[in-house]
Amino acid sequence: MFVPTGETPPSFKSYTFILPAVSVGNVGQLATDLIISTLQLPKVGYFHTDALIPMVGNNPYATSAENAKELSTNAEVYSSKELKLAVLQIRAPILQTKAKEFRKSIVSWIKSSGFSKTVLLSSSHAYQRDDQQLQGTPLRFLFSPTLQEEASARIKELKWREMEKVCAFPGISDSEKKLYIPGGGVTRALYNDCCNEDVPMAVLLTFCSEGDNIPDAFALANYLNDWLHLLSTPAEASPQWNAPASWKLLFGSGIPPAIF
Question: Would you say residue 236 has pLDDT above 70?
Fold first, then answer.
């Protein structure tokens, strides 16, 4: 359930909605951080649910000592009227027993808010790719049928690669294929939910491994920007994303000199 921070709930009619999946390397969440930080999106509310592990922290997008003291929670919504953009940042894992309930609440909110399209940023285990997925770029996309009709021409221009279906029974039968996103969290299930509910959804994902996933986050954010043009960039130049202040401690604090 969306809870606004102000007295008057914002209208998201015809907005583009971006959210991350809690997936391998946290790439979708890191890319979402880049979007919120670079576009300086103000917080307009939070998503109240018991499907996420509770957490609280200080402001991850702090720009001064004053706003660094602001609290953040496990699921917050940021928005821009000028860009007609809403972004949900998820900062905690989804409880396995509540995953279906979480997906249902997200789809319900998407439909009631009237978003023009939803973009899910995700990732998948690189080591579980099949032979056809080893070639070329690690970036992939999936569009729901309702969005495919609208964006097909643009996707052809970008020469993007759709997420391949793989054999359901490798080595036994090649006739039956399925969509397989290992390490993608709720990605496949949420995508299927949106397809069944005629919700325009795009899944943008990258194959990666656990570790320093900052380069993967930049690559995924660039991939998104090629399509939506959130940042204007000169021809042949890369978008200038600004990492949030919280990334300074992404791998913990420095080594204490006293141990030497």
Answer: no
pTM above 0.70, yes or no: yes
- Per the structure block, which two tokens stand in for 61? 């997008």
Average pLDDT of the chain?
91
What are 190's two structure tokens?
A: 């949420």
91-111 as b/e: b if 16+ CB within 10 A: bbebeeeeeeebbebbbebbe
Instruction: Return d(Cα 41, Cα 60) in angstroms, integer.
Output: 12
Residue recorded with tokens 């997200």: 106
Which amino acid is it at 24?
Answer: V
Cα separation of 35 and 139, whole Å? 18
Q: What whole-number distance in Å separates Cα of residue 258 and Cα of residue 260? A: 5
Kindly report the three-state secondary structure assignment for every residue of the chain: CEEECCCCCCCCCCCEEEEECCCHHHHHHHHHHHHHHHHCCCEEEEECCCCECCCEEECCCCCCCCHHHCEEECEEEEEECCCCEEEEEECCCECHHHHHHHHHHHHHHHHHHCCCEEEEEEEEEHHHCCHHHHCCCCEEEEECHHHHHHHHHHHHHHCCCECCCEEEECCCEEEEEECCCCCCCCHHHHHHHHHHCCCCEEEEEEEECCCCCHHHHHHHHHHHHHHHCCCCCCCCCCCCCCCCHHHHHCCCCCCCHHHC
Q: pLDDT by residue (tens digit) across 13-62? A: 999 999 999 999 999 999 999 999 999 999 999 999 999 999 999 999 99
Please give the single-letter amino acid code of residue 195: C
